[in-house]
Every structure is written in C-alpha cells, then in structure tokens.
Amino acid sequence: QVQLVESGGGLVQPGGSLRLSCAASGSISNINKMSWYRQAPGKERELVASITSSGITNYADSVKDRFTISGDNAKKTVYLQMNSLKPEDTAVYYCKVSVWPVDYWGRGTQVTVSS
C-alpha cells in the first residue's frame, strides 16, 4: 500500500519561509511526476508546482520566483521551498505522486500566513 506523508506546514508571518516535504512509502517505483497542489477555503484545488522524473519543473504564475520544487526519486520524496509568503498562500497543501496511470495523494498539511 502506498502512503504519502506531508510535513513542514505551520503558521508563518507574511514574508516568511516554509519548506514542505512529502515522503512516499510502500511499493512505488517509476515515478513520472511529483506535484504540489493547494486548496484554500471555498476554492478549488489548484496546481502549485510539479517536477517530472527528468527534472522539468512547472509553476503556477502566482508562485513563480517565490517557490521552488525539488524531488528525489530515489528517496521518493518531493520538497517545496516557499519564500516571501503572502496571506493568499494560506491553504492546505497536498502532494501528488504520479505513476502512470495512477495518482497517489497525501492527506495535506496546513499552511497559514498571517501576522
């Protein structure tokens, strides 16, 4: 059974930084892509950033130049470094690991940006 566990969320002041981690356990191999999504109250879940097995990254316009995604396929771990955080970044952040044709999701970690 595959499990994804996110960590690193919390409360941070505007302008601060957080680093999220997501570790996969269980029988999982040949990862195609690892991604971070977020969902704010009353809003739909949205893609924040993704990284393919070949290292190609993609970011939402709202986080470009502030967030950095990185991954370690061997460790089955994906990270999201978040800098210059804004109140509008407040959301539950979910990681997703794609092993075609299956997507595995974590349960999420809360990020709150507030003074």
What's the overall average pLDDT, rounded?
95
Q: List how many beta strands DSSP finds.
A: 11
Q: What is the rounded Rg?
A: 13 Å
- The SSE string, one letter per element, is EEEEEEEEEEE
Strand content: over 45%
Helix run count: 0
Contiguous low-pLDDT stretches (5 residues minimum) are none
Task: State the separation between the terminal residues, measured CA to CA.
Answer: 40 Å
SSE class: mainly beta
Give the biggest sheet: 7 strands, mixed
Question: What form results from the Cα inertia axes?
Answer: globular
Which percent range fits the helix content? under 10%
Descriptive account of the structure:
By secondary structure, the protein is mainly β. Helices cover 0% and strands 55% of the residues. It is built from no helices and eleven strands. It has strands at 3-7, 10-12, 18-25, 33-39, 46-52, 57-59, 67-72, 77-82, 91-99, 102-105, 109-113. The strands form two sheets. Strands 2, 4, 5, 6, 9, 10 and 11 form a seven-stranded mixed sheet that branches.
Quick rundown:
This protein has 115 residues and is an all-beta fold. It has strands at residues 3-7, 10-12, 18-25, 33-39, 46-52, 57-59, 67-72, 77-82, 91-99, 102-105, 109-113.
